[in-house]
Amino acid sequence: MKALWMVASWLMVMPSYAASLDEQLVAFFSQREPDYATTLQVEVLRAPKTKMTCSSPHFQLPSHSRRWGPLTLTAQCDKQVAVIQVRVKVTGRFYRSKRTLAQGAVVRAEDIRSVIGRLDELPPNSWLVPLPLPLIALQKIPAGKVLTTQQFRQPWVIKQGETVPITFQGKGFHIAGRGTALDNAVINQSLRIRLENGQWLTATLNDQKEVIVK
């Protein structure tokens, strides 16, 4: 009985563990970026000027905030709000060109390579997932360049001036017709179609490569 009392007394005086600000920030950003949680690091550039009044503040980022790199967020404890500046460092996979790609070139798997490195140091909109090849280069891309989404477009499925079959869809009916494409279009993109009578309307190219008017 005496031994149990001693253990209980020891537990009562033992200080409870409170995660540090760095650890709490790592947990916050890891929850935000679960795919990169194992490589994510947070460097505090500017900590709150006054000590927070709670052990677990609520962190919040501005809307449309960047995913990583230099970031500013707030930490709130009841009515206390503090501003924290951090640098979020993340390592992961991205893509570079293997060779110089000419403007208008068709880009295939043999033209690019994947690289592991610091994602927070990359240009905005860098490709972080496998590219949906083939793609068309919108500009000249030097060899070894980090690839971004603005550098490419999908190949046109329909080209301006083509005569294309059209399906008119409504509640309980499907009507087939034909028309002339007034725009280039890729999958899931809208385009204008001119009918044989001269009327024009807007249609959508679906993932089955069908031109649908609803």
Give Rg in angstroms.
28 Å
Q: Secondary-structure element order, as H and E?
A: HHEEEEEEEEEEEEEE
For the largest sheet, list the strands in their spatial order: 10-11-12-13-14
Helix content: 10-25%
Number of DSSP-assigned strands: 14
CA(first)-CA(last) distance: 81 Å
Major sheet: size, sense and barrel closure? Answer: 5 strands, mixed, barrel
Beta strand %: 35-45%
Give the averaged pLDDT, no decimals. Answer: 90
| SS field, number of helical segments | 2
- Structural classification: mainly beta
Overall 3D shape:
elongated
Identify low-pLDDT runs. 1-17
What's the number of structural domains?
Answer: 3
Summarize the structure.
This protein is mainly β and 214 residues long. It contains two helices and 14 strands.
Describe this structure in words.
The chain is mostly beta strands. The protein folds into three domains: 19-89, no CATH class; 91-153, Type Iii Antifreeze Protein Isoform Hplc 12; 163-213, SH3 type barrels (Roll), CATH 2.30.30.760. It is 11% helix and 38% strand. The strands form four sheets. A five-stranded mixed barrel has the order 10-11-12-13-14. Strands 1-4-3-2 form a four-stranded antiparallel β-sheet. The chain has a three-stranded antiparallel β-sheet with strand order 6-8-9, with no helix packed on it. Strand 2 and strand 3 form a beta hairpin. The model is unreliable at 1-17 (pLDDT under 50).
Structural topology:
Blueprint: H1 2-13, H2 21-32, E1 41-46, E2 58-60, E3 69-77, E4 80-89, E5 91-97, E6 106-107, E7 112-118, E8 135-137, E9 152-153, E10 163-170, E11 173-181, E12 189-195, E13 200-205, E14 211-213
Parallel strand pairs: 10-14
Antiparallel strand pairs: 1-4, 2-3, 3-4, 5-7, 6-8, 8-9, 10-11, 11-12, 12-13, 13-14
